[in-house]
Amino acid sequence: MRLHAIFPAAGHGVRMGKAASLPKALIPLHGIPMLIRSLRAIEAAVVVDQAVVAVPPDHVDAVTSALAGQSRAALLCVLGGATREESVHNAFLSLQAAPEDLVIIHDADRPLVEPELVKRVVDRAAAEGAAICAVGLTDTLKEVAQDGHVIRTHPRERFYLAQTPQVFRHAILDRAYSLRRRFEIPASDEAAIVEQAGFTVHVLNGSLRNIKVTFPQDLDMVDRWIGTGA
């Protein structure tokens, strides 16, 4: 069994205010691009045979240059799509994988994922075929109508916020893609595609530290954590 890692990194960082100058994945954190930190975190946990990065079409050279010499795996850049789902699918199609191999999908903008968490998710996927990490809700969950009134309050114990890495046996993800009428209703993560295909996705406890850098305040917080060794 071999391990393949996909890093969707085609976002332009519009919500970060960085779109005009730098792809989001290359925003530096203490001098090291987020993408490189995410790649290193995965490779600190497991031996990756092939790594594929989905990159913005207008920043291929910049991302390719930044990745040079940064991975022990065979490294490939592919063009990202208009959505995250398209980007991951493009990367998946480029894999040279056997059905029993595992595919790790990890957001390029989750640079603080702990190697221990990565290994737990990979080990569970190796045993069960599909596994993700997620964190439970701590706040009360309200379902709200468009006009702003509360429809109902949900029991938060049953709801989780999905994170990455998400890990799947190649044959399972391949079958899930083949059953999906792709891109009509975008899926926000690959677990949703696998679930829709009828496969069981196992959930492991994630980490509050494993945040997705989306807004400038996220970047500031992660930068401080790295600077203080927190």
Radius of gyration: 17 Å
**Helical amount among residues, as a percent range?**
25-40%
Give me the number of helical elements: 7
How far the N terminus sits from the C terminus, by CA atoms, comes to 35 Å
Strand content: 15-25%
Strand order of the largest sheet: 5-4-1-6-10-7-11
Strand/helix succession = EEEHEHEHEHEEEEHHEH
Structural class: alpha/beta
Extended strand count: 11
Mean pLDDT across the residues is 91
Overall 3D shape: globular
Q: Kindly report the oligomeric state of this protein.
A: single chain
Major beta sheet summary = 7 strands, mixed
Quick take:
The chain is of the alpha/beta class and 230 residues long. Helices cover 32% and strands 24% of the residues.
General description of the model:
The strands form 3 sheets. A 7-stranded mixed sheet has the order 5-4-1-6-10-7-11, sandwiched between helices. Strands 2-3 form a two-stranded antiparallel sheet. 32% of the residues lie in helices and 24% in strands. The chain has helices at 34-45, 60-67, 84-93, 115-128, 170-179, 190-196, 216-228, and strands spanning 3-8, 28-29, 32-33, 50-55, 74-79, 102-105, 130-136, 141-144, 150-154, 160-169, 202-205. It has 7 helices and 11 strands. The mean pLDDT is 91. α1 crosses α4 (115-128). The longest helix has 14 residues, at 115-128. The radius of gyration is 17 Å and the shape is globular. The protein is an alpha/beta fold and 230 residues long.
